Amino acid sequence: MRAIEKRIAKQAIVGLVVVAVGVFAYIQVFTMGVDRLPERVCSGAVDRDIAARVLPGTMTAHERGKRVEGVGAGFVFSCNVKTRGQDSILSGDGSIHDVSAGEWLEGVEGDADASKLAVEFRDVRAVSYAAQSFLYVPCTPTGKKPGEARNAYGLIVEARTIGDTAVTGDELRQEVTDFAFELLKYNYEIQGCQEGKTFPSELPRFA
Length: 207
Hints:
Layout: H1 2-30, H2 41-44, E1 46-47, H3 48-54, E2 61-71, E3 74-83, E4 89-98, H4 101-108, E5 116-121, E6 124-129, E7 132-138, E8 153-162, H5 169-190
Antiparallel strand pairs: 2-3, 3-4, 4-8, 5-6, 6-7, 7-8
C-alpha cells in the first residue's frame, strides 16, 4: 500500500509541475507580447510600459514610429502599438500647425461631451475625452519665425485607443494622456521647436 501511495504522490507532484510549467509558458508566450517590445517604442518616443498597461495580453505585438513630411508647418510623427489577435491599438501623432491655443481649444471642444477633463501646466494644454486625448504646446519649428504665423505656431498631439483595452475609465484616460505627453515631448525635440521648453516628467493628474 505504501508503494502505491508513494507512486500516487509522485505522480501528483509531477502533475503539479507540468501544470505550473504550462501556466508559466502560457504567460510568457501568449500574454507577454507587448513586454517583448523595446523599452521605448516608436524610435524611442514612448515608454513601452504605458502600452503594456493599456493593451490586453496577447501572443504578439508590433510597434512602429513613422515620419511623414510636408504636413502643417513641418511633418507628422506618429506612434502605433498594436496587438495581434484582439487587434487592439494604442496610437498617436504629432505635428505643428499655424493655430493659436484658443483656436485649437475651440476645435477639440467642438464635440464636447460629459467625459471631458482638462489640465494645463507651463503652456502645455491637455484635453481628454475618455479614451482620446489632445495636447497643445506653443512651438515655432526650425526655419520659421514667430511673426510668419497667421496666429501662432503650435505643436498638436492626438492619441487614442482602438479595440479592447486592459484598463478602463479614469485609469485608461490617464494612460492615454501620458502616452500623448511622451509623444509630445519627443515631437518637440525632433521638430526643432525653438522655444526650448523644459518639460516635467509628467503632467498633473486628472482629478
